[in-house]
Specification:
The structure is a homotrimer.
Chain A (H helix, E strand, L loop, with lengths): L18 E3 L4 E2 L2 H11 L9 H6 L9 H16 L3 E12 L8 E13 L5 E11 L5 E12 L37 H4 L13 E3 L4 E2 L2 H10 L10 H6 L9 H11 L1 H4 L4 E9 L9 E13 L6 E12 L19 E12 L1
Antiparallel strand pairs in A: 1-4, 2-4, 3-6, 3-9, 4-5, 5-6, 7-10, 8-10, 9-12, 10-11, 11-12
Protein name (chains A, B, C): Dehydratase
GO molecular function, one term (chains A, B, C): lyase activity
Pfam family, one (chains A, B, C): MC_hydratase
Chain lengths: ~350, ~350, ~350
């Protein structure tokens, strides 16, 4: 029997400081833009129209930050999370050079934390994944941690290292790839009159609309990102597992929630940071995703009067409209209908 | 609670002469061409092959007229028909500058008619929507009318204004963006030997083939056009409505019927006008669409001997082959299996 | 009633030596690349990243050989297999000039064999289909044979001509559109350390992963290829046929099996030949496809020390993992779970 097949790494295969250069660099095409629009219906003007992006002082129209995130994330799956039990969280995600059509992304991950679970059969792996373009410029840099199976429960536990997780990305680390100084920003074409100064900390916005997910939709998306996690694609195997169904890639929910958030946050043109995130409950085909957001912080950007940032919490639910902002129960746990809790930062004109 | 969410306009929000510049300009990419082909399987040579288009004297390969139509239509939905009860009809649709990869479309609509319904709870709004490219050239210009809910039944009825609806677009208003003079038109590669002179007024063509629609297909298409009408996407909400299911965007049926019409009208390379149209009955996932066409008029184009036009009626049905041309019953009403009645004009070499 | 509709050819419409120039040339776009990735999740680096392809000495990043194959195949369907009962086999498939974004493919087929079946109602048609780009360079050249209905059982049988089917494409006929001489080939980015010399004849590889197919997936793919065979698309008609369901285009299974084969054959960057192939059993939406491969031959390429070829048999199954390499029963017939038996040749660095 051949041993040429890649089995993915198990918990005992990881060590602190280990650096993994992931396979399959990926060139972004105009097709990715169209598929991303078709999959989520995103309407942010800066990533929809070259003319609008150029009028904002972008060099060229960038692709959606989240498409960049998914491509970088996808590369890391075969090495990091093929044998994962759960994707536990994200932290410290910064977006650097915007990705354009024709750019090629490559991802490298470094193991920065390890903790075996008390059951001795699984452990948590913390990695810092960095996606770069063909010029070596950072495109996305983030930390995620996943629970991974051990192959052999008898293998010894590594020394526990829990990294200092970065908090919210600081104002001075937010990169702004456009400049509105001396330019007219067209709020009508952008879809909303509300700019940076119009949002209040603590303000909550129900994004109203809902989007139902089909199996084809999430599989098309997840394959596009060359994410190979088995649980998303193989109904034959999932039928035999406890859960019985294909699980939807958590990033698909992030993109849907972001697209829904246009209704209320249309000028939040670009995501500059993903501060923290959790997939509170799993989603399946047939679920209808709704979302609401809370303004966590209104951030002034050093030296910039043309643009500011909003730190937001966007919460997505399944089969539950968000007019009363469902979140956590009295026990402090996520309500069962809550599927995403994302703390991130968007750039928005002043 | 935030008021930053766009609720869409209600009947009493519209006034005669009101001009609405719609949000989210949209740049056409090569990805749109591929998705359009993948969604409908269209085979018209002029929009499938750059070589063929150039051999016809097009400057560059244009994208399908209907893709242009859907993009322009999609922009208008959040402002015009988010609270629509029904999309009642189209008239006077002219196609201008062909849309190419790299072009950016923006849409503006003007309210040209208003009529409150006798129930006092809804009214009909007539708008003239015009899509332009980044050079300000008209891409599509058409009238549609929709039935829209009132937010407050007590608000007073506006003065009734019913616009003179344009009839079929006149020969002199049809724009021909190619020139076959002195060129060989390759009927073999085009897929049919039948040219302008081979069609007779009154001739009816059964397009034979059928195409079944899945939920993923119509939602992918409708999101691609950034059309946000809730009824297409939200199964959770639709389940609670009388109809119980997601409604398919009528334009999806137009594109399917046009793609099916290749079998019988392969040389009708480009749609130059949509004279009138009605969505006779709703369609749902699982329906199989068939189509037939009737030649309404054979039009000579002023000063052109290389190309003519055919005014066609294409009728689409669900789950009903079209060998006996199903249309209207003895009562003059559409048969229940008829889903589209489209009066439009195609350009076809002589 | 109109006779403008193309009915497709029946068995008695074919004659030896007949040459058919198929309709609808097709320009390849960046959208095709993205959709191909989204449909199959293919991860071969040479067709995923422009930088990687250029580092291998490709002039430009080629599109996947199988996308070229499907486009060429699709063109031939309306003339060859619209009335086909079954697609019986492939032979002698050679890939020539790689297809790039912007290239336009046209297909011509020549009838090279005919044999009426003893039932007098069907016959087998052998065609040699050749796809060329806009410069007339051969892109794909292959033989396929299909069982086609007769329109009139009373029409006389043609003289039986069974062509000499080409065997496996010879080493000297394999075209290598890249040159690794003097270049570093990055096995890490490619996803596997195993190169030409690491594979043994007779070695078998279980590709482990499984992919479930939805109706939307195979229809989106098959329409993208402008393949019009009715059995793939029309549930209304299929419901009335014995099989009751839409059949999946066999080429969709080839592409899925090839994408799955990345896990074990990641350096087999390009398919250079399809030597023979059979669709052993039909597939339907809901099936989960698995695959395994056997190395049939390790081929040295004349004058090349940078690259070799592997002749492979890849077998795909439905709803059956491949750890014990399911293939044929004791009776020599394919097991019912086997859906594809493909004999092909890939190029792989030494």
């Amino acid at each position: 029997m051949s041993t040429k097949t890649v089995p993915g790494n198990y918990f005992e295969d990881f060590s602190i400081g280990q650096e993994i250069r992931h396979a399959t660099p990926r060139t972004v095409t105009e097709g990715d833009i169209a598929l991303y629009t078709g999959l989520y219906g995103s309407r942010f003007a800066a990533t929809s129209a070259a003319t609008f992006a150029e009028a904002m002082g972008f060099e060229r129209m960038p692709v959606d930050s989240l498409l960049a995130f998914h491509l970088v994330f996808g590369k890391s799956v075969p090495d990091i999370s093929l044998n994962a039990v759960a994707n536990l969280g994200y932290a410290g995600g910064r977006f650097g050079a915007p990705l354009h059509v024709g750019d090629t992304v490559t991802t490298t991950s470094t193991v920065i934390g390890l903790k075996e679970n008390s059951n001795g059969r699984t452990g948590v792996v913390y990695v810092n994944s960095v996606g770069v373009n063909q010029r070596g410029e950072m495109v996305v840099d983030y930390v995620r941690w996943v629970m991974v199976n051990k192959q052999d429960a008898a293998s010894p536990a590594p020394e526990t290292v829990i990294p200092d997780l970065p908090g919210a990305v600081a104002a001075e680390d937010l990169l702004v790839p456009f400049d509105l100084t001396g330019r007219d920003y067209d709020v009508e074409l952008a879809g909303s009159p509300f700019l940076w100064g119009d949002y209040e900390v603590g303000e909550r916005i129900d994004h109203v609309d809902g989007m139902t997910i089909e199996e084809s939709d999430h599989m098309l998306a997840t394959r596009l990102y060359q994410n190979t996690a088995k649980v998303h694609f193989n109904q034959h195997a999932q039928s035999q597992a406890k859960i019985g169904r294909r699980l939807i890639y958590g990033g698909h929910i992030i993109s849907l929630a972001r697209a829904l958030s246009f209704n209320g946050l249309a000028n939040g043109q670009l995501i500059a940071a993903i501060n923290a995130g959790a997939h509170a409950n799993p989603t399946f085909a047939g679920d209808t995703i709704y979302a609401w957001s809370e303004v966590l912080e209104r951030i002034e950007l050093p030296g910039r009067t043309d643009v500011g940032a909003l730190r937001l919490r966007t919460v997505a639910t399944k089969d539950t409209p968000c007019s009363d902002f469902p979140y956590k129960g009295e026990d402090g746990k996520y309500l069962p209908e809550v599927v995403l809790d994302l703390d991130y930062t968007v750039l928005i004109p002043r």
